[in-house]
Amino acid sequence: MSDYARATIADVAERAGVSIATVSRVINKTGQVSAATAARVESVISELNYAPQAAARGLASRRTNTIGLILREITGEFFQPMLRGIEAGTRELGYDLLIHCTHRSPEVQSPANYPLSEHNSDGLLVFTDSLDEAEIIRLYYAQFPLVLLHRSAPPGLHIPCVTCENKSGARRLIDYLIEQRGCRRIAFLSGPDGAEDSYWREMGYRESLAAHGIPFDPRLVTLGGFDQHQGRIAVHQLLSRSVQIDAIFAGDDDTSIGVIDALKEEGLRVPEDIAVVGFDDIPLARYLTPPLTTVRAPIETAAREAVHQLVRLIRTGEADRLTLLPTELIIRRSCGAT
Amino acid sequence: MSDYARATIADVAERAGVSIATVSRVINKTGQVSAATAARVESVISELNYAPQAAARGLASRRTNTIGLILREITGEFFQPMLRGIEAGTRELGYDLLIHCTHRSPEVQSPANYPLSEHNSDGLLVFTDSLDEAEIIRLYYAQFPLVLLHRSAPPGLHIPCVTCENKSGARRLIDYLIEQRGCRRIAFLSGPDGAEDSYWREMGYRESLAAHGIPFDPRLVTLGGFDQHQGRIAVHQLLSRSVQIDAIFAGDDDTSIGVIDALKEEGLRVPEDIAVVGFDDIPLARYLTPPLTTVRAPIETAAREAVHQLVRLIRTGEADRLTLLPTELIIRRSCGAT
DNA sequence: TTGAAAGCGCTAACAG
DNA sequence: CTGTTAGCGCTTTCAA
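Above: the input entities. Below: the structure tokens describing the complete assembly.
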């Protein structure tokens, strides 16, 4: 298929009456070329529909001009703003974007099986726990540019990280519930095992409780999994413990969806009987019934910033060690506000 | 950065005591290699963490093993299931996935500016109107493998298309409104200019009206733009025309969100005063207030199928001319059902 | 079953 | 300011 002879740099050079080096110079804007020559070359390029072949460039220059994004899975409401931010960042900076999900490819033992790495990109964006620590370490020591999104680096490795202010966001959220809504028995649903976002949100939650003299009660904590379905399960678990609860901090908004559904099924009213709050402010949050009180995380901005850090790392060898983006409290009816 | 000497095929060959041709053969499973030799090579490969460099392979083989996806923009609820399907498809078939948005890069005149095409992928998936017809035509005549997702080919070009049964889905939806809910004055909000999905949905709408002896009234049709904000505007326009309306077919679910909001603002009740129905069944649809009656479009399946068709086209030179996926009527409260 | 060798199309010294 | 040339790392004939 498609063996229509594509124009090569040599065709352009010949037609323009210059050497291929000159053509290369005008394409890459490297080195001096007289305006007249440049114009002639450019016109031949568009005449011939010429586009330099990525593989040949990559081989010769040892740069792919491509950034890889590793995810576990494209799911939930979180990804649309994130991908949007990443795509915007790569496009702004002139990079191609390669996307790969590690979910459902468990037979990844040798690095040869990692479809994204040194062999096809100039740097990698790693989302949360989509890549094992071992591979991160390997890439780090191979000096391959890496930026972590919504997770921190393994101990001792200086890998730039970009994430949101989870702890202070959660702190303000719980402060609000306690101070303005009079809650004292607040449940917390944690994210999936090892999710750092969840860890910091829990820290904010605990800090707020402590600051208000409310003892931490482990019976109020259970797994929410950052997942709608797990959120439902969590509600049933909490209720079966027959402890008093006046609010549920669902860990994130996706979980809140399931939590609200499950509470309604149990015949409880939100927020009259139990308040519910989330984290992220996904697009859907304001359309839930009742609209969800949450913490707005700048998902798209964080994603775009991560690309910028990665490109800086690729180009200059340095990047900010940690980029923490501010969050904002969004009050809606699910917490009892009017 | 990252100038840690990566292992090359030559390193593997030397260490294994064979020629690079043999290494290439075991990697690509092309040609006969004795079991013993193969085993030795494989062990050296994992020992050295060797992974073949995509650029070199691409240059030598004239295949990139990459599929390009062209979108206008990553926005709305539609994209998560679509990207999920595309990613799944490419991964299943062993291709890399390159994503590019054409939105906000209007200065695309010469093909050299199209960041996705013959020069860096083996084939392209084109979503709706993300690529101008001129470029589609150029690629087609250059014999470059192309599959169109949710749009049809320019006249005369045999380019495979994958989409959903928009017309019959809309037909069943409107039949239902008329027959079961007694609606006669049904407004239709069209998608953005040139959106084919919208065109076929409108055909289904008109066909249903005609079948029930209801005259088509142009005052009941206006732009919805497949967009929440435009949906709000559309409602205000319709209401200002002071024609009677008992239902609004919003064109798609994203638009329905804005429509429902706007109706509420106008003091109208949904569905008591006006029923609202959408198309797609995005995840959010069942969480709207009231939950949205809509037509479920198999977005993820269509996306995955498109990848399969494209890979078949790349490998064999042929693919199905048209893949039409069935849709399903989803009844919820926004149309007055209980 | 294996090896030698010729490129693939381009970039990047190095000359001039 | 422009041209010559040596590879980049791999696949793929063609021979052996």
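Note for the figure: Chain A touches chain B through 65 residues (CB under 8 Å).
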